[in-house]
Amino acid sequence: MTDISYPSLLASLPVFSQLDAASINELWQEGRLIHYDKDSQVFRQEQSSDHFFVLLQGLIKVVRTMPNGSQLLVRFALPGDVIGIAPALRRRNYPATAISVTTSAALAWPEKSWDSLTQRFPCLLSSAQDTVAQRLSDADDRLLEIHSLEVEQRLAHSLLRLIRQVGQSGAQGTSLSIPVTRQDLADLAGTTLYTASRVVSSWDHQGLILAGRKQITIADLDKFAQAVLERG
To answer: In this structure, what DSSP letter does residue 96 have?
Structure first.
């Protein structure tokens, strides 16, 4: 990581693409670069929300611990995403836990800088608002699916949402560009690891997907959607 120009990386992110060099430098100087090892915590649920972040490199998984002790996967954060946005929600504590799935780097600003920075750089506020809106939309979709669809259809919708977010085309079809476990899919669809593994294996045997360790490729998106979503 030492050879990477992180200020240049910050400038290359879509959320800051309209800022000039002076503004990028101002953002950089007011923040603090933090590196995270794989599987380390960025922040913890109910911890005091003392910083907010923009992810520069890597992958962050945001999970919420439920009252019964189970964990709910909320979303994956990619480079350019603003995370830890408790100040935007006027919360004093983080509502979820963020875990670095890979070696990652983020620029962090103190919580007390939120109002000042978002006034000077409205793109930060816009990104946070987009994140909140997307989370609410995803939560509505998942709640509707849990109450109206069979588990196979719920898993298919969860997989297709991930494909739309982080899919990349290749010779064998459209693959997830991030590592996703069967447990992640189970959490997203509101089912068990056993059921998610059984359904994914069935899709693999039918030739609808190519399933590897933490990786899934859909050979034909239309064929997959028709085969899975239109039955049951």
So the answer is: S
Q: What is the pLDDT of residues 134-170, one digit of tens each?
A: 777 877 787 788 778 899 999 999 999 889 888 889 8
The string of DSSP codes covering 158-225 is HHHHHHHHHEEEETTEEEESS---HHHHHHHHT--HHHHHHHHHHHHHTTSEEEETTEEEES-HHHHH
- 8 Å CB contact between 49 and 109: no
Distance between CA 190 and CA 197 in Å, rounded?
13
Q: 174 phi and psi, to 5 degrees?
A: -105, 120
Q: At a CB cut-off of 8 Å and minimum separation 6, what does 113 contact?
A: 30
Q: pLDDT, tens digit, for every residue of 28-79?
A: 999 999 999 999 999 999 999 999 999 999 999 999 988 887 778 888 999 9
Question: d(Cα 81, Cα 129) in Å, to the nearest integer?
Answer: 11
pLDDT score for 177: 86
Share of the chain above pLDDT 90, in %: 57
What strands lie across the sheet with 215-218, from one edge to the other? 167-170, 173-176, 215-218, 209-212
Domains in the chain (CATH in brackets) are 6-144 (2.60.120.10), 149-230 (1.10.10.10)
Burial of 144 (C-beta count, 10 Å sphere; 0-12/13-18/19+): exposed
Collapse the DSSP code of 107 into the 3-class scheme (helix H, G, I; strand E, B; otherwise coil) and give the result. Answer: strand
What is 122-153 written as a DSSP string? Answer: HHHHHHHHHHHHHHHHHHHHHHHHHHHS-HHH
Q: What does pTM read for this prediction? A: 0.81
Give the span between the Cα atoms of 2 and 85, in whole angstroms: 28
